[in-house]
Specification:
This protein is of the alpha/beta class. It has two domains: about 35 residues, no CATH class; about 160 residues, Carbonic anhydrase (Beta-carbonic Anhydrase, Chain A, 3-Layer(aba) Sandwich), CATH 3.40.1050.10. It contains eight helices and five strands. Strands 2-1-3-4-5 form a five-stranded mixed β-sheet. The longest helix has 22 residues. It binds zinc ion. Zinc ion binds next to helix 5.
C-alpha cells in the first residue's frame, strides 16, 4: 500500500474512532475522563508482529494493560526501563513476556545460525544478537529437532530469557525476589489464539 493511501486509511479510522466513543473497541465515557491517570493491572512485553495485538488477545480495553512491543519481544535496556516504570510508578505486579509462534525475528535469527552472510544494519543486529545465544543453545540441546520444532523451542526459550533478564534487572529484582512482582514468560499460538504460560506458577 502506498504511503498516502495508508495515511488516508489511518485518518479515516481515527475519524470513526473519535466520532463515537461508545462503539465497540472505543474507550467509552468522555475523553476528558480517559485522559486522567492510568492504572493498568498488568504489563506485557510483546512482539511488534501485527498478528499479535496484545489488548485484543487478552480481551482488555483502554487503560488496562501497559504494553511494550518490540520485534522478538526482547528485553533490551529501553524495554526494561519502560517496564520498570510500569512496575515502580504505576504499581503493576504482573509482567508477561509474550512470545508467539511464527515469530519473524526468531525465524531470522535461527536462519542466521547456518548462514550469516546476509549483512544486517547494526540496529537489526541488536535484535538478532539478543536472540542468537538462545537459538544456539536450543539447537545444541535438541540437535535432531526439525525446523518447526526448533522454532517453537526458540520462541519459548526466547520469552523465558527475556523474563529472566527482567527478573534480574536492578530496578525490578528486589520486588521480584520478595514476591511482590511476578514475571512470567508465555507464548501465543497464531494458529489457535491460545496463550500458554511458562512461568513458575504455570497458571
Ligand atoms: Zn514476532
Amino acid at each position: 500500500m502506498a504511503p498516502a493511501a495508508a495515511l488516508a486509511r489511518l485518518r479515516a479510522g481515527n475519524r470513526r474512532f473519535t466520532a463515537d466513543p461508545e462503539r465497540p473497541g472505543s474507550p467509552g465515557g468522555s475523553w476528558s475522563r480517559r485522559a486522567g491517570a492510568q492504572a493498568p493491572f498488568a504489563a506485557v512485553l510483546g512482539c511488534a508482529d501485527s498478528r499479535v495485538p496484545v489488548e485484543r488477545v487478552f480481551d482488555q480495553g483502554f487503560g488496562e494493560l501497559f504494553v511494550v512491543r518490540v520485534a522478538g519481544n526482547i528485553a533490551g535496556p529501553s524495554q526494561i526501563g519502560s517496564l520498570e516504570y510500569g512496575v515502580r510508578q504505576l504499581g503493576i505486579r504482573l509482567v508477561v513476556v509474550l512470545g508467539h509462534s511464527g515469530c519473524g525475528a526468531v525465524d531470522a535469527t535461527v536462519a542466521r545460525l547456518d548462514d550469516a552472510s546476509q549483512p544486517l544494519s547494526s540496529e537489526l543486529m541488536s535484535i538478532v544478537d539478543e536472540i542468537h545465544a538462545v537459538a544456539l543453545k536450543e539447537r545444541e540441546a535438541a540437535p535432531d529437532a526439525g525446523s518447526e520444532e526448533l522454532l517453537r523451542g526458540v520462541v519459548r526459550r526466547n520469552a523465558e530469557a527475556a523474563a529472566a533478564r527482567l527478573r534480574g534487572a536492578a530496578g525490578l529484582e528486589p520486588l521480584v525476589s520478595d514476591g511482590q512482582v511476578l514475571v512470567t514468560p508465555a507464548v501465543y499460538a497464531l494458529e489457535t489464539g491460545v496463550v500458554e504460560y511458562y512461568g513458575p506458577d504455570r497458571a
